[in-house]
Design goal:
Elements (H helix, E strand, L loop, with lengths): L8 H13 L1 H12 L8 E6 L4 E6 L2 E2 L1 H5 L4 H4 L3 E6 L8 E4 H17 L7 E5 L4 H13 L2 E4 L6 H10 L4 E5 L2 E3 L2 E3 L1 H9 L7 E5 L13 E3 H6 L10 E2 L3 E7 L7 E6 H15 L7 E4 L6 H13 L3 E5 L10 H9 L3 E4 L1 H8 L4 H4 L8 E5 L5 H11 L6 E4 L33 E4 L5 E2 L4 E7 L9 E2 L3 H8 L7 E9 L5 E6 L4 E3 L2 E3 L1 H9 L4 E11 L3 E10 L8 H15 L8 E4 L13 H9 L15 H8 L4
Parallel strand pairs: 4-17, 6-7, 6-8, 7-14, 8-11, 11-12, 16-17, 16-18, 18-19, 19-20, 30-31
Antiparallel strand pairs: 1-2, 3-13, 4-5, 9-10, 14-15, 15-24, 21-22, 21-23, 23-25, 25-26, 27-28, 29-30
Bound molecules: ligand 6R9.
């Protein structure tokens, strides 16, 4: 049986069972048959889930970039690897072939070497969504340096603390960045950040906006000039399967960000395998993921997963609203995109706008739609299905995390019957379990609990940079010997999983455990509502009660607020039950969101509780100004 290409639901169940009965045989076969190794492993898996000591493909020797690029050159040299779609729609798109990508990566790898970068060194990448960003990741991996990408929307202090945490030696950045109608002074932010970063020796600057910037003598160099003199050939470094590939910071709910460490062999096998199956990828497809490479979604499903499969991947510099709200649909039409992967927050934002933005474009190339980042509410799911997928393209709702490296639970298009708001079934090799408060595994269906994974998978993070104990404490201690995701989930009668939100988003109202996602889902179905966020606050009688923050659609119609509140509660009553009715409803002009589009419920919870003391770091929010408004209009 070909494990690499799941062909039917029957296949899926067979392969899944195999992967659980004999994980080593399963992953060993996939790794062996689909990748180039300099040397095979001694053992497929060695693990200790108590101390979080996990090794996949021990002593295997490999270079992930050889697998992403070089091995495709014979068959796919002229094929487009990356389509670059610039922020400005009037700037021509670029088609970068596998051959050209090879040359550009080799050149940048040689530049890194000349600038003193060696195997194991950390390189910070702070670049906008331009081809050099993808090339920079690959150049690092080619020379065996560990990349640490920091999303280019983060502030100088966020950048500085991430550089310090992993003692980076070099920064790759650009003069500036375009974002919709704005341009951002990236180099200035880097200069500010570096005031406190003694380990940085060099800054290599890519030209993008041609803006005036300061270049510090001896430290800062123009990438273009260095590339001109760089050789086109580069012999890739031979790496161990368990050598780190990258560090990517993910915010903890408290404390400093965690530098999640992913290693080469397992991450390679897992991202390639999941990409192939979850997006039903076929040779001539044009795949587009709208995430930023600054997030795990971009690492795994713009760069590594697609390139490992020899795919064509779109890299989009812009934003969904520029020059107008039709931009996504315009890009799909223009490049005849076959797989489109985006986030619920983007879908909800675009669903608020006039339908003509979608209808003016030909979306008939679309075969598969994907969603990631948050629970997708039912209304957004239907809007996506009806208007973008035209009811024929299956939606794959992909649940996963920075820590998991790749997608864990998701329907396989054309194979797994979808169910709105359900991520459905685990990928082969993934063994999810639901745990109750007494730390017992819930074995039946139709249960709700804390989502854990009880067996290692190749894509899992191996540690937190510089703090293995924090890794053990955060992920392997709450449920000893199991990986705890921090998310709650329910399993329905057929074994489908629905993510109900972070476990800390569960509110206990009069003794009932209420996940916030299903309540928000019900509210969002009200025709006047655009988005909502529910949190709990202490209540004398019920223990906790529910506070709702709601944004309304811009219909131009003025509605009586109290009436609307009543209607929303009636809606919740009939969809979930009177127990889930909201005690307080505040209409807001926006919800505080992280840069990757997740609603920051932590802040909303504090406001609901009337505690304005310590919001933590809000500078990394997309819209920090909204916090003040929400605070001022809080309902007492
Ligand atoms: C890939 C990514 C991880 C958290 C995760 C969960 C939420 C992601 C989801 C989803 C419901 C989905 N999440 N995908 N919740 N359905 N399809 O987003 O990684 O930024 O680390 O966030 O996002 O709460 O635990 P990351």
């Amino acid at each position: 049986m070909n494990y690499y290409e799941i062909g039917s639901l029957e296949d899926y169940f067979k392969i899944y069972n195999k992967s659980v009965r004999n994980p080593e045989e399963f992953w060993g076969t996939i790794a062996d048959e689909n990748f180039n190794w300099y040397q095979k492993w001694d053992k497929v898996l060695e693990y200790d889930m108590i101390h979080a000591d996990i090794k996949w493909f021990k002593n295997g020797k490999v270079n992930i970039v050889k697998n992403c690029i070089d091995r495709h050159l014979n068959k796919r040299g002229e094929k487009t690897a990356i389509i670059f779609e610039p922020n400005n729609p009037n700037e021509p798109a670029q088609h970068i072939s596998y051959l050209e990508l090879h040359e550009r990566v080799c050149k940048m790898a040689n530049v890194l070497k000349e600038q003193g970068i060696q195997k194991g060194d950390r390189v910070c990448i702070y670049l906008p969504m331009i081809p050099e960003l993808a090339i920079a990741l690959l150049a690092c991996a080619r020379v065996g340096a560990i990349h640490s990408v920091v999303f280019a929307g983060f502030s100088a202090s966020a950048l500085s603390s991430r550089i310090q945490d992993s003692d980076c030696k070099l920064v790759l950045t650009s003069d500036g960045a375009y974002r919709g109608s704005k341009s951002i002074d990236l180099k200035g932010i880097v200069d500010d950040a570096l005031v406190n970063c003694p380990t940085i020796e060099k800054v290599l600057v890519v030209k993008r906006t041609n803006s005036e910037i300061q270049m510090k003598e001896g430290r800062d160099f123009w990438m273009e000039e260095l590339l001109e003199n760089a050789a086109k050939d580069h012999v890739a470094e031979i790496m161990d399967a368990e050598d780190p590939l990258f560090i990517l910071y993910t915010s903890g709910s408290t404390g400093k960000p965690k530098g999640m460490v992913h290693t080469i062999g397992g991450y390679m096998v897992y991202t390639a395998y999941t990409f192939k199956n979850i997006f039903n990828y076929k040779e001539n497809d044009v795949y587009w993921c709208t995430a930023d490479i600054g997030w795990i979604t971009g690492h795994s499903y713009i760069v590594y997963g697609p390139l490992l499969n020899g795919a064509t991947t779109v890299l989009f510099e812009g934003v969904p609203s520029y020059p107008d709200f039709g931009r996504f649909w315009n890009v799909i039409d223009k490049h005849e995109v076959t797989q489109f992967y985006t986030a619920p927050t983007a879908i909800r934002a675009l669903a608020k706008e006039n339908l003509s933005f979608v209808e003016n474009h030909d979306l008939s190339s679309i075969k598969v739609l994907g969603s990631v980042g948050e629970p997708i509410n039912e209304e957004a799911w239907h809007w996506y299905n009806n208007n973008v997928g035209k009811k024929t393209a299956p939606i794959t709702d992909t649940w996963w995390q920075t820590e998991t490296g790749g997608i864990m639970i998701a329907p396989l298009p054309f194979i797994t019957p979808t169910k709105p708001t359900y991520a459905t079934l685990p990928l082969p090799g993934i063994q999810p379990v639901l745990m109750d408060e007494r730390r017992n595994e819930l074995e039946d269906n139709q249960v709700v609990g804390s989502l854990c994974i009880k067996f290692p998978w190749p894509g899992m993070a191996r540690t937190i940079w510089g703090d293995h104990q924090r890794f053990v404490d955060t992920y392997f201690s709450a449920f000893r010997g199991k990986y705890f995701t921090g998310d709650g989930a329910l399993r329905d009668e057929v074994g489908y999983y629905r993510i109900t939100g972070r476990v800390d988003d569960v509110v206990i109202v009069s003794g009932h455990n209420l996940g916030t996602a299903p309540i928000e889902d019900a509210i969002n179905e009200h025709p006047a509502v655009a988005e909502s966020a529910i949190v709990g606050f202490p209540h004398d009688v019920k223990g906790n009660a529910l506070y709702g923050y709601i944004t309304l659609k811009e219909t131009g119609e003025v509605r009586d607020r109290d009436n609307l509140r009543r209607e929303i509660n009636e809606h919740i009553s009939s969809h979930i039950g009177p127990i889930a009715k909201l005690d307080k409803i505040q209409f807001v002009s926006g919800l505080p969101k992280t840069r990757s589009g997740k609603i920051m419920r932590r802040i909303l919870r504090k406001i609901a509780e009337g505690d304005f003391s310590n919001f933590g770091d809000i500078s990394t929010l997309l819209n920090p100004e909204i916090v003040e408004e929400i605070k001022n209009e809080r309902i007492d």
